[in-house]
């Protein structure tokens, strides 16, 4: 039994005046991979943003405990420093900040120490090779002019460089062709091996799961988790849908 890394208890979340999540409970152990599936507009992404502490998502009840510490009221940057990571469904473009300087700055913010440039560049180069990313992307403005696939690869690059304790991946496989899905899956597998990191994968498609060892599957409908099972639940959903 893995020790608990994240415990979400009776979480209720409102966006503007609309209650989106109702009494959500999830426990993720160290090194575990959990999958969150469900119909469109059911609150899956809302859970990801709420766990990360986005101010747009108001927690109206329940708690989020990470590594034994209640982080329900913590800011996004505090959560990121403690080892939480969220990859976006639609990564935003940040003109004026290169991909490499963004990652280096994030690493320094997290560790509180300066990072030697040559060490950073060496690790960045090796990680980009793993993801079949052209090195020139490192010097380009973050996500500016990147294709959908390159944006998703840039998210996985950040995941591998930052090595968080828990990564929440929101529809990382959406809009990717078969080869890009394989590359992204290989990057996620590498993260699991490298860090023994925990994952919460929010997805509609099961292509990205084919090469990953899944521990638990959760189904969300209308802002509540209606079923939790093992990896076999993914096959059940593939066969019969969410009904």
Poorly predicted ranges: none
**The CATH topology of the largest domain, please?**
Rossmann fold
Q: Would you tell me the overall average pLDDT?
A: 92
Listing every helix as H and every strand as E from the N terminus to the C terminus, the arrangement reads EEEHEEHEEHHEHEHEEEH
> Total number of β-strand segments?
12
Number of helical elements: 7
| CATH homologous group name of the largest domain | P-loop containing nucleotide triphosphate hydrolases
Measured by DSSP, the beta-strand proportion falls in: 25-35%
Structural class: alpha/beta
CATH class of the largest domain: Alpha Beta
Write the layout of secondary structure elements.
Layout: E1 4-15, E2 18-29, E3 33-37, H1 44-52, E4 57-66, E5 69-70, H2 76-82, E6 84-87, E7 94-98, H3 99-111, H4 117-130, E8 141-142, H5 148-162, E9 166-170, H6 178-195, E10 198-202, E11 216-221, E12 224-229, H7 232-240
Parallel strand pairs: 3-10, 3-11, 6-9, 9-10
Antiparallel strand pairs: 1-2, 1-4, 4-5, 7-8, 11-12
Helix pairs in contact: 3-5, 5-6
What does this structure look like?
The protein is α/β, with parallel strands linked by helices and 243 residues long. It has 2 domains: 1-84 and 209-243, P-loop containing nucleotide triphosphate hydrolases (Rossmann fold), CATH 3.40.50.300; 90-164, no CATH class. It is built from 7 helices and 12 strands. The chain has helices at 44-52, 76-82, 99-111, 117-130, 148-162, 178-195, 232-240; strands at 4-15, 18-29, 33-37, 57-66, 69-70, 84-87, 94-98, 141-142, 166-170, 198-202, 216-221, 224-229. The strands form 3 sheets. The protein has a 6-stranded mixed beta sheet, sandwiched between helices. Strands 2-1-4-5 form a 4-stranded antiparallel beta sheet. A hairpin with a 2-residue loop joins strand 4 (57-66) and strand 5 (69-70). The longest helix is centred in the C-terminal third of the chain and has 18 residues, at 178-195. The chain is globular, with a radius of gyration of 18 Å. The relative contact order is 0.18.
């Amino acid at each position: 039994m893995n020790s608990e890394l994240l415990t979400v208890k009776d979480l209720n979340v409102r966006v503007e005046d609309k209650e989106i999540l109702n009494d959500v409970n999830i426990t993720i152990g160290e090194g575990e991979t959990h999958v969150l599936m469900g119909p469109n507009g059911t609150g899956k992404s809302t859970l990801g943003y709420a766990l990360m502490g986005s101010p747009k998502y108001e927690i109206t009840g329940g708690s989020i405990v990470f590594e034994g510490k209640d982080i329900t009221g913590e800011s996004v940057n505090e959560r990121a420093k403690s080892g939480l990571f969220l990859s976006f469904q639609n990564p935003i473009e940040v003109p004026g900040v290169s991909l490499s300087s963004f990652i280096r700055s994030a690493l320094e913010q997290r560790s509180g120490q300066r990072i030697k440039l040559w060490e950073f560049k060496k690790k960045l180069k090796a990680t980009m090779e793993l993801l079949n990313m052209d090195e020139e992307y490192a010097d380009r403005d973050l996500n500016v002019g990147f294709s959908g696939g390159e944006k998703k690869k840039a998210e996985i690059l950040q995941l591998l460089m930052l090595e968080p304790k828990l990564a929440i991946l929101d529809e990382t496989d959406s809009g990717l062709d078969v080869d890009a899905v394989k590359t992204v899956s290989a990057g996620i597998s590498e993260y699991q091996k490298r860090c023994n990191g925990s994952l919460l994968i929010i997805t509609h498609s099961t292509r990205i799961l084919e090469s990953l060892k899944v521990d638990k599957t959760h189904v969300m409908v209308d802002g509540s988790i209606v079923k939790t099972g093992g990896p076999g639940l993914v096959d059940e959903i593939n066969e019969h849908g969410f009904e």
